[in-house]
């Protein structure tokens, strides 16, 4: 990077981003330059002569400035410092590169001011300076100026007699170009090693940076600076003739509107393109304000249009020559604030060859994201792992994200972040399947493949709460297995404003997931994502997760029946062979109960729905503990063929409530008399009927009536007082066998 510059300055077309329509933008052309690089001095003195020195930021934050001011300047009269200094060998419009052989590239303005203020008489500071023409040449060709260059003019042994004295007035702002310029800290022209990263996405941040082509970004909106002719032409070319014509028509239709929104077309992969200008400014405050408005206006418009993702270019970092630090800091900070407000994912797309811009944006994004969002603890469970994370649920990069219908805030947050298509899909499913335990949708704008919306209700009763959480986790696990997912993110369900016991919720959720990973030896990554403000919840999750595996009660790892067959394709129906003892026992029980009503048994199928079986066993354990008695009964349930298929998949859920009768309550009906259930086993077109033999937890029962839509308080089921039993909880019964007969 260091070296003597070429004598010829060749015109460059490598900076694609900023070929301006504005006449004020610098344009480089082939010509020879007068290379003027010098070592000079600044010396503190006690004399009060006729000049002052002003330290200030250059308006576009590329340089610091020291300006020689005439004596008697009113702006200097009230300054607290009364320093006097001498400048030797410095010319108007010089730009400072080094102070005492150290580059000022990494020094802040405050550090430079302090260095000048602490200068001790008569020791001088040695300045490496150059004129504007030479500095711009080196900057444009990505070359470094330093005091070891052979063409640097060295200091004379004598100090020139031109003396200036001043108070140093620190941070005075000005809107004009300065007399002496000092490069501001910037990564613009630093040789930054290339890395393997093409995309930096912070897991918990809504703001990201990637390398690529803005036109090919798969987002809802791409934002184009209409002040950049090259970028404008590039997007219009990718959009095609119809796209360009639509833009021109919109401009004519709304000549005073700054933001022009056009539907993407051609090779553009986004849904919409926003064209809006930004104003180039010499004053760094005005420049920042212009960039902030550019970002804010675009994100606000996208939010109003219900978009959830968008991509920006890095404006001002090409031939405009503005500080990359300033641009990156302003754009990322504003984007982060607006994205939190509107829940929009924002990407900054950097040209692959501009590693300096990419690295600066990446560093700025890292610096603005709150540190607590990155707090992650994890432990290994067999082949899988469990992580406890402080962060944003909508930013988790997993196969599936879990949402609970009981948390209105979380539900709304996830739907808003996922986008309009996901919201529509969820609402349609909810309308068509109001009693569904789990609703699936695509991930939309989230970093996941699917979203599982689980129907779960909080409860203040400890036992009921544990059972409901066990049921919920089991449902999620079975659905994830069916999709062959390997990573999943849970929120801290019930730990917010629902008033549930945090200890019970956390203990149950962690226990069930540990049990799953231990028993099945799944290579899963399970994430429990906690809001950063919920430190107590985070601590409790980590306490439970970090417990030794020996602490896990192995007796609670429910065993499936020994008669069950293995399956690799989630098969749930297994036809029994007539030669087996299992077949003969089921046949005998059925024939004894049916008397002569069943003329022929066509087949008997064993139902292997592990999700519902595990939930049933959890309820059975609770019933035994609570009632100190085994209330399980094997009962019959007759139904049409279509209902039988649904029961095998979803068991006796609430969608079947009242399907056959409501005389003793609006629930799922069972009978100890197969002849009674036979009347509800309507035959199909082939004359085939279907009846289940089910394991049912009767619990504490009471006479029912048609007004009962839920179990009466203090009871588990309702009855006719003889052979009919009605249950109101999905997992209170398990369909064990399905008999098809005539």
From TrEMBL:
E.C. number: 2.4.2.-
Polar residues: bias regions: 9-26
A Pfam family assignment: PDZ_6
Domain Macro span(s) in chain numbering: 194-369, 373-546
Major localization listed first in the record, in broad terms: nucleus
Ranges of residues in domain PDZ: 39-131
Protein name: Poly [ADP-ribose] polymerase
Species this chain originates from: Adineta ricciae
């Amino acid at each position: 990077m260091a070296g003597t510059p070429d004598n010829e300055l060749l015109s460059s077309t490598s900076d694609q981003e900023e070929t301006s329509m504005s006449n004020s933008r610098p344009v480089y052309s082939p010509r020879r330059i007068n290379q003027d690089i010098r070592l000079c001095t600044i010396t503190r003195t006690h004399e009060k002569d006729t000049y002052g020195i002003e330290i200030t930021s250059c308006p576009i934050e590329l340089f610091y400035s020291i300006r020689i001011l005439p004596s008697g300047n009113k702006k200097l009269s009230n300054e607290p410092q009364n320093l006097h200094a001498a400048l030797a060998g410095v010319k108007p419009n010089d730009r400072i590169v080094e102070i005492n052989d150290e580059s000022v590239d990494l020094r802040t303005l405050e550090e430079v001011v302090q260095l000048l203020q602490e200068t001790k008489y008569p020791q001088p500071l040695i300045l490496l300076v150059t004129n504007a023409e030479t500095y711009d040449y080196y900057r444009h060709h990505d070359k470094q100026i330093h005091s070891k260059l052979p063409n640097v003019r060295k200091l004379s042994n004598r100090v020139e007699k031109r003396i200036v004295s001043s108070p140093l007035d620190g941070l005075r702002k000005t809107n004009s170009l300065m007399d002496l310029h000092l490069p501001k800290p910037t990564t613009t022209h630093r040789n930054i090693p290339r890395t393997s990263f093409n995309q930096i996405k912070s897991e918990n941040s809504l703001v990201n940076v990637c390398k690529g082509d803005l036109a090919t970004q798969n987002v809802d909106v791409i934002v184009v600076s209409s002040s950049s002719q090259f970028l404008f032409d590039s997007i219009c070319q990718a959009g095609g003739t119809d796209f360009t014509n639509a833009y021109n028509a919109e401009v004519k239709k709304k000549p005073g509107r700054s933001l022009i929104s056009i539907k993407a077309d051609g090779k553009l992969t986004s849904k919409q393109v926003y064209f809006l200008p930004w104003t180039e400014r010499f004053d760094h405050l005005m420049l920042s304000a212009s960039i902030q408005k550019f970002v804010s206006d675009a994100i606000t418009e996208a939010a109003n249009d219900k978009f959830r993702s968008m991509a920006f270019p890095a404006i001002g970092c090409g031939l405009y020559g503005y500080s990359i630090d300033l641009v990156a800091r302003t754009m990322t900070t504003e984007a982060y604030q607006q994205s939190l407000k509107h829940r929009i994912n924002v990407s900054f797309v950097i040209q692959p060859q501009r590693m300096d811009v990419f690295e600066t944006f990446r560093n700025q994004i890292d610096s603005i994201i709150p540190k607590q969002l990155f707090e992650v603890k994890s432990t290994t469970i067999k082949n899988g792992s469990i992580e406890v994370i402080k962060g944003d649920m909508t930013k988790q990069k997993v196969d599936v994200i879990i949402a609970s219908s009981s948390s209105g805030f979380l539900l709304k947050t996830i739907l808003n972040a996922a986008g309009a298509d996901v919201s529509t899909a969820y609402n349609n499913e909810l309308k068509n399947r109001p009693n569904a335990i789990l609703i699936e949708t695509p991930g939309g704008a989230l970093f996941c493949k699917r979203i599982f919306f689980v129907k779960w209700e909080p409860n203040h009763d400890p036992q009921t709460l544990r059972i409901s959480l066990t049921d919920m986790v089991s449902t999620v696990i079975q659905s994830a297995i069916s999709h062959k997912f390997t990573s999943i993110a849970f929120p801290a369900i019930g730990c917010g404003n629902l008033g549930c016991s945090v200890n019970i919720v956390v203990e149950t959720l962690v226990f069930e997931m540990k049990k799953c990973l231990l028993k099945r030896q799944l290579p899963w990554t399970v994430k429990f994502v906690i809001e950063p403000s919920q430190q107590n919840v985070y601590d409790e999750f980590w306490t439970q997760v970090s417990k030794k595996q020996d602490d896990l009660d192995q007796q609670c790892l429910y065993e499936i029946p020994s008669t069950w067959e293995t399956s690799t394709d989630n098969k749930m129906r297994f036809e029994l062979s007539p030669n087996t003892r299992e077949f003969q026992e089921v046949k005998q029980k059925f024939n004894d109960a049916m008397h002569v009503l069943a003329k022929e048994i066509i087949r008997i199928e064993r139902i292997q729905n592990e999700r519902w079986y595990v939930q049933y066993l959890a309820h059975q354990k609770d019933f035994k503990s609570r009632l100190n008695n085994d209330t399980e009964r094997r009962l019959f349930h007759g139904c049409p063929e279509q209902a039988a298929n649904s029961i095998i998949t979803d068991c006796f859920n609430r969608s079947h409530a009242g399907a056959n009768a409501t005389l003793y309550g609006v629930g799922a009906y069972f009978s100890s008399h197969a002849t009674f259930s036979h009347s509800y086993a309507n035959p199909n077109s082939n004359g085939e009927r279907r009846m289940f033999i089910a394991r049912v937890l009767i619990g504490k029962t009471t006479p029912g009536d048609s007004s009962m839509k839920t179990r009466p308080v203090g009871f588990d089921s309702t009855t006719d007082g003889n052979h009919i039993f009605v249950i109101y909880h999905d997992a209170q019964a398990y369909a064990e066998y399905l008999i098809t007969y005539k």
